[in-house]
Design a protein that fits this description.
The complex is a heterodimer of chains A (321) and B (491).
Chain A: H1 2-17, H2 27-58, H3 62-66, H4 80-87, H5 89-119, H6 128-136, H7 145-155, H8 162-165, H9 172-184, H10 187-195, H11 200-211, H12 213-229, H13 232-237, H14 247-264, H15 271-281, H16 285-317
Helix pairs in contact in A: 2-16, 4-16, 5-9, 5-12, 10-11, 12-16, 14-15, 14-16
Chain B: H1 16-30, H2 50-55, H3 57-61, H4 65-69, H5 75-101, H6 106-148, H7 160-181, H8 195-215, E1 226-231, E2 234-240, H9 244-251, H10 253-275, H11 278-288, H12 293-304, H13 311-322, H14 327-336, H15 351-376, H16 380-388, H17 393-418, H18 426-431, H19 437-440, H20 443-453, H21 457-486
Antiparallel strand pairs in B: 1-2
Helix pairs in contact in B: 1-5, 1-7, 5-6, 6-7, 9-10, 9-21, 10-15, 11-15, 12-15, 15-17, 17-21, 20-21
Classes of the chains: A mainly alpha (321), B mainly alpha (491).
Chain lengths: 321, 491
């Protein structure tokens, strides 16, 4: 049996390194491995193909796309669709809003989490335990949608760009991550800086910040993805100011145009009529694909390089405060 | 590290208690929309707080454009209202700064007393400016009523304004007493503060932010007990109705059937999610059987990407694949030669299952990561021992890997049971349309459509409130179970 295992590993190595080796594999085992590889390969394809499909449709000749010919590879390569997007001014504004909220929001959140995480490791702080719990406990309850909305109204943060930024500054979960990380930094470093006459701010800037870069990168990337993807805050809090809608919100509006209009005229029409109307409305599908592509592209580009940070994030998340 | 600064200045120290407590109240008051001193006319925007009326002219005039155009109210009056509000807000901010300074040594306390005097003076000045504007307007209003025979609906001065005045006067008196009776600091004393307070003051901004955005919304639960009259951009508190809205959940047949449908959707979706939660673990176990490095990485990268795109983008993808001109219809047309125009996204069949599949597509790769890490944490000797005992691949999976992952899985399961009412609304919002919305409406989405869409604020608040209470209770139960069974808490 032990032999069998070694052999199967050999086979795998061989298949990886493209070294041809004649080894005998137990039938069932081989079948299992093949199925395993096949299933995962298929699932990976299932996850990848939609993005690819979107992409080839946006760079192909729009007539071909309209005829439904572009399914596996681009036909008549063109960047016209992306150029057309530039003409949609409200989309440009949404892009600017989304990028700025991502950059500003993430930067503030990271600085705040770092500083906050540092402060809660300081045992001398007045009533530290209480205030730390005061912050962390907010992860587990939520006043609800309407109270949250009326609160934003009360603060004047609806229809206001700051409404994206300020509520997202204090993130208890990220503070826990940073705190846990800072606690793992040897205390001697801080002590020696303190003996050298550095104050808390100085220690934070010169000792803690540089040492906690990995965790800050992790929360930064989570924060940025969160900001980029966030959609409900735009829908709920920015109802009356289309200028402040995020890219995701705009995409949602574009995608839903057809079915929204269809639902309005739904009453008193036969379903074949409805289908015809929807077909007409859906004809601008390329523009929708292109908007979706623009929205998803930053994540697709960033993700593979940042994957290790993401994984670190979830593993650290398993450590509780 | 901490330098002890002993401060005891006799009875004068006690004067800081009323100062700080009244400051807390004043601070909270600044954000309450019931306290809206800029509201001279009843038709003015009601969602303003002192804070917003100090900052935004636009928000003050949003409902009274007509009155301004007809000179029933002058712009200058609105500006003086803003100035008055700003004075009061600035006063409260100055008072807060003073309170922070007063945590220091005697010298700093001395400084803080003077700052408090200034802040209190600003608040009081703001109050009288406000009073003056109101009375001026009252007079002007009567004049208008005389000439055009039309009485503008003037609003009363908000009662909270007098509270604010009271707080300010209290602060003023305390500060004066302190200035007079507090022992003088030594000439050579430097400004110093205990480390514990210094750290606390640095931490204070975060406490304030957390309070404003997580605790203050709880005050919105009051909508559950009031009648609500809708109007353009207003939340009009009329009268207290007790538990009327809670009762209407059961008594009103329309609401009752809605709740039944929504709860059914919610529980089915969550139930399906929980019933398939083991899939992520299986994903991890079978993936770890693949020993070929690059292939594994490839699978991991591609399958985790969907987790990082929003549900809107998932819907965009669904649209590209399943819409009437999407991939599936294209392929069907090509294969059969007959034009296919199926509207898969408007199809109501097996909707729960479809939503489940989208959820799995989006989440499985990511959920599996924690199990993959768990597998790499399992002691290799266990596998070796199992091999020696003659265990095959499957036996090792079942008897070594699976038990190794069970603790993690049980935590995940408990968490998802605790979150059974929270499916999140993004997925169901983006996928819902005329045909599918009845089936897709889960609790979160129902709260949204009821509150934001239909404007039934109280009912929506009631449901949201009950949901929060049930969720928190479930979480604590789950935590207790975890504590007794595993000896470890999950929150």
């Amino acid at each position: 049996m032990a032999n069998q295992e070694e052999i199967s590993i050999d086979v795998l190595k061989a298949s990886c390194n493209k070294r041809k080796k004649h080894v005998k594999l137990k039938g069932g085992d081989a079948a299992f491995l093949i199925t395993d590889y096949l299933v995962f390969g298929l699932f990976a394809l299932l996850c990848f193909f939609p993005f690819y499909y979107l992409f080839i449709n946006t760079v192909s000749n729009s007539e071909m796309v309209a005829r439904g010919d572009v399914n596996f590879y681009p036909i008549g390569f063109t960047l016209q669709n992306y150029k057309d997007l530039l003409a949609l001014s409200d989309l440009g504004r949404a892009f600017v809003v989304t990028v700025s909220r991502t950059v500003i929001g993430t930067a503030l959140m990271v600085v705040a989490s770092a500083f906050c995480g540092y402060l809660v490791t300081k045992k001398e702080m007045w009533n530290r335990k209480f205030w730390y719990r005061f912050l962390v406990i907010t992860m587990y309850f939520n006043a609800g949608l309407i109270p949250g909305y009326t609160n934003m109204l009360m603060l004047g943060l609806t229809d206001n760009f700051l409404g994206y930024i300020i509520p997202a500054i204090v993130q208890p979960f990220n503070i826990i991550l940073v705190k846990t990380y800072i606690e793992s930094i040897p205390g001697e470093l801080e002590e020696s800086a303190f003996i050298d006459g550095a104050g808390h701010m100085m220690i934070f800037r010169k000792v803690i910040l540089p040492l906690s870069k990995p965790i800050l990168a992790t929360i930064a990337i989570f924060g940025a993805v969160g900001h980029w993807n966030s959609f409900m805050d735009s829908v709920i809090n920015m109802q009356n100011s289309p200028n402040l809608h995020t890219l995701q919100h705009k995409l949602y509006i574009w995608l839903n145009q057809s079915s929204n209009i269809a639902s309005v005229i739904d009453t008193g029409r036969s379903s074949s009529d409805l289908e015809k109307i929807i077909s007409q409305l859906n004809s601008g599908k390329v523009i929708k694909y292109t908007i979706a592509m623009v929205t998803v592209l930053p994540i697709l580009l960033v993700y593979p390089w940042m994957q290790k940070y993401f994984e670190k994030g979830i593993m650290l998340g398993a450590v509780k405060g | 590290m901490a330098k002890k600064i002993v401060i005891s200045n006799g009875w004068t120290d006690k004067l800081y208690y009323p100062t700080r407590i009244s400051l807390l109240f004043a601070f909270v008051l600044v954000f309450f929309s019931e306290f809206n001193p800029a509201r001279i006319l009843t038709q003015m925007n009601k969602n303003m707080s002192l804070f917003t009326s100090a900052l935004s002219y636009e928000r003050i005039v949003v409902n009274i454009k007509y009155e301004i155009n007809h000179n029933y109210i002058f712009k200058s009056d609105i500006y003086s209202l803003m100035i008055a509000s700003a004075l009061m807000v600035a006063g409260v901010i100055i008072l807060s700064v003073a309170a922070c300074i007063s945590l220091g040594n005697l010298k700093m306390k001395r400084i803080s007393n003077y700052v408090t005097l200034g802040g209190a003076a600003a608040v009081i000045a703001g109050f009288f400016k406000m009073l003056a504007t109101y009375s001026l307007y009252k007079a002007a209003d009567l004049e208008i009523a005389d000439t055009v025979g039309f009485n503008m609906a003037t609003d009363k001065l908000p009662a909270a304004l007098f509270f604010m005045l009271g707080f300010a006067i209290l602060q003023l008196i305390c500060a004066i007493l302190l200035v007079v009776f507090q022992p003088r600091p030594a000439k050579d004393e430097k400004c110093e503060m205990a480390t514990s307070y210094k750290l606390f003051i640095m931490f204070l901004p975060f406490i304030v932010l957390s309070f404003i955005f997580s605790y203050l919304p709880l005050y919105g639960w009051r909508y559950a007990f009031f009648n609500y009259k809708s109007g353009p951009g207003t939340l009009n508190m009329d009268d207290f109705v007790g538990f009327k809205w809670f009762r209407s959940l059961i008594e009103n047949p329309m609401t009752r059937s809605d709740i039944y449908r929504v709860m059914r959707n919610t529980l089915i979706m969550s139930g399906l999610g929980i019933a398939t939660s083991w899939l992520a673990m299986a994903f991890a176990i079978f993936l770890s059987e693949i020993k070929c490095g690059w292939f594994r990485r490839l699978v991991q990268v591609t399958t985790t990407i969907p987790n990082f795109i929003s549900w809107v983008l998932v819907y965009a993808i669904a649209f590209a694949i399943f819409s009437n001109e999407g991939f599936i219809n294209n392929i069907m047309t090509k294969l059969t030669g007959v034009p296919h125009n199926e509207l898969y996204l408007m199809d109501n069949h097996a909707l729960y299952l479809k939503m489940l599949l989208w959820g799995i597509w989006k989440g499985i790769g990511w959920s599996a990561i924690i199990y993959i890490a768990g597998i790499s944490g399992i002691d290799q000797q266990l596998y070796e021992a199992a091999t020696v005992d003659g265990a095959g691949r499957f036996q090792k999976m079942v008897h070594v890997t699976l038990p190794g992952l069970m603790p993690t899985y049980s935590v995940m399961l408990l968490m998802s049971v605790a979150g059974i009412l929270s499916n999140g609304m993004d997925q169901y919002l983006v996928f819902s349309n005329a045909k599918t919305k009845d089936t897709l409406e889960v609790l979160d989405l129902y709260v949204y459509t009821l509150g934001i869409g239909a404007g039934k604020i109280p009912l929506s608040t009631v449901i949201g409130m009950l949901k929060t209470l049930v969720s928190v209770t479930l979480l604590f139960i789950a935590n207790r179970i975890s504590k007794t069974v595993r000896g470890e808490s999950i929150i």
